[in-house]
Write a structure and sequence with these properties.
Number of strands: 3
Helix content: 25-40%
CATH topology of the largest domain: Cytochrome Bc1 Complex, Chain D, domain 2
Number of helices: 13
Oligomer: single chain
């Protein structure tokens, strides 16, 4: 009588006795059988399409070989899963809102740090300049806030929108490691650094190109943010620098029965260096002077 052969198994010595064994690849398993392979120490250049595509082969309870408690089996399975599956695929290392943000293709238009497109506003510091309340209103229906916006309405589910808002609120410049912000690159003049900062930090998203204003705000005269070109001349450079550093409370309500304006000047003192504030102030005064000369 021909003796029926049994599948060969390779028992990872790390897991011996704790309720896990792995099928040998020679018997059709999809993943590695060695201790090094099971730990996912090396992945294929294609991002794990090879060894890590099916991760650690099939995982079986060793109750067939050893009588182990159920909790031991579950714990060991979890250990294998965590150590075999790349974290980038499990997304344990990412904010849930970031997963939705990336899945929706938001980075194709918006830059965060050094990654993303330039069609829309830079979001590296959006958590400073925008409140959660405003972000919710915006994501719910962008054109209801700004009629001529190119931003589509994704019609997000409430939980998805909440997750994305929570993620965006965390973006306060940490994606620019020290010295890597765009306005810190190269040997350029203070006014030029200030101009880059104005555009990249997001001042332009509220105040418009060269501070000409016109961006929407609710429950304020004209339903728009006023032009800086008319306001800056009421400050000295030191006063303006202090204003940027400290921020300002929401403007007064035009209609006392409606909600307060959702756009207001945030405090930039913790996000920008003293030199950054000087550069931005220099740029704003230089551009006001240019605008005044042009209009004259």
């Amino acid at each position: 009588m021909t003796k029926r052969s049994r599948p060969k198994v390779t028992i990872n010595p790390i897991f011996r006795g704790c309720g896990i064994f792995l099928e040998s690849p020679a018997d059709g398993a999809a993943g590695p059988s060695s201790a090094a392979g099971a730990m996912g120490a090396k992945q294929s250049p294609a991002g794990g399409a090879g060894n890590s595509a099916f991760f650690c082969a099939r995982v079986f309870p060793m109750q067939r070989l050893f009588k182990c408690g159920t909790w031991v089996n579950h714990a060991c399975r979890l250990f294998v899963l965590i150590n075999c599956v790349p974290l980038s695929l499990l997304a344990f290392d990412r904010n849930p809102g970031q997963k939705f943000f990336d899945a929706a293709g938001c980075r194709s238009c918006h830059r965060i740090g050094n990654l993303g497109g330039n069609a829309g506003p830079d979001l590296t510091l959006v958590g400073i300049r925008r409140s959660k309340e405003w972000l919710h209103v915006w994501l719910k229906n962008p054109k209801a806030w700004k009629k001529n916006t190119l931003m589509p309405n994704f019609r997000l589910a409430p939980k998805t929108q909440e997750a994305i808002v929570n993620y965006l609120s965390t973006l306060q410049g940490q994606d620019y490691p020290p010295g890597t912000a765009p306005w810190h690159q190269g040997n350029i003049a203070s006014i030029e650094r200030g101009q880059i900062l104005y555009n990249k930090a997001g001042c332009v998203a509220c105040h418009g190109p060269q501070g000409k204003g016109g961006h929407p705000n609710n429950n304020v005269p004209g339903n728009a943010i006023p032009a800086l070109t008319k306001l800056i001349t009421t400050y000295t450079p030191d006063e303006l620098k202090l204003k940027i550093m400290r921020g300002a409370p929401p403007p007064g309500k035009q209609n006392p029965d409606e909600i307060s304006p959702l756009v207001f000047m945030p405090s930039w003192g913790n996000a920008l260096t003293n030199q950054d504030l000087d550069d931005l102030t220099n740029y704003l005064f230089a551009k006001v002077a240019e605008t005044t000369n042009e209009s004259w």
